[in-house]
Design goal:
By secondary structure, the chain is mostly helical. Helix content is 65%, strand content 0%. Bound molecules: zinc ion (ZN) (2 copies).
Length: 216
């Protein structure tokens, strides 16, 4: 357990704890289903745009790339300001992950599917707007990258030097939760000045808590 995380799932009250128990134990909330439904959702969205709306493949690819790029900032913002703030089920679930990093808990798969199918229904099916699906597929692809990388960070130890650096970045986040919010890249931590710095953390450690220095 990360001794420096200020909240625990219990901080959010008994109702949230009960919901988290349901999410952990019910097949409907299974951690693994999203690994299949999200790629299928992307395939559906792209095929519909090409086959029904006859979108230009190059523009569709560009809108996909724009969505994927946009995701990288969304990942940072989501992790920093939604997973780590407020009295919400998402914060409580994330606190549970910080308590036990190997726990298989994630965003319920049907939340993603309903959001993206809702966007498809309004913009693509009803308004017949091209490339909205390309953009949202790119965002959803970013989400897939996020949970694949995050799973590997906690369950495997790849040899690649680049990957090990990224994994260490996230491992530090687990020990110093106010730093290193990027999971698939370190870029936005550099932009927002939240990259972990040993000297700063060392002085904070001396001033505040004895448990703030990462042991890797
Ligand atoms: Zn993690
Ligand atoms: Zn976190």
């Amino acid at each position: 357990m990360s001794a420096s995380l200020k909240v625990t799932p219990e901080s959010f009250g008994r109702n949230v704890g009960r919901w988290l128990d349901i999410i952990r134990n019910n097949f409907l909330f299974s951690y693994w289903i999203g690994f299949f439904t999200d790629p299928l959702t992307i395939a559906f969205l792209l095929i519909w745009d090409i086959a029904v709306l006859q979108s230009n493949v190059y523009l569709l690819t560009a809108s996909f790339a724009a969505g994927l790029t946009g995701w990288t900032l969304l990942e940072y913002c989501f992790h920093r300001w939604i997973y780590h703030k407020g009295q919400t089920l998402l914060h409580a679930g994330h606190a549970m992950h910080h308590e036990d990093a190997k726990l298989l808990i994630g965003m319920p798969w049907f939340l993603n599917t309903s959001v993206y199918m809702g966007v498809w229904y309004v913009f693509t099916y009803w308004l017949e707007a091209r490339y909205v699906s390309g953009f949202s597929s790119g965002v959803l692809a970013g989400f897939i990258f996020y949970y694949c990388f995050h799973h590997i960070h906690h369950h495997y130890n790849p040899k690649s030097a680049w990957y090990r650096k990224l994994r260490t970045h996230h491992k530090i986040h687990h020990q110093v939760p106010g730093t290193n919010f990027g999971v698939t890249m370190t870029f936005w931590d550099k932009v927002f000045g939240t990259t972990y710095r040993k000297a700063e953390a060392g002085s904070k450690k001396r001033l505040a808590s004895p448990a703030n220095s990462p042991t890797l």
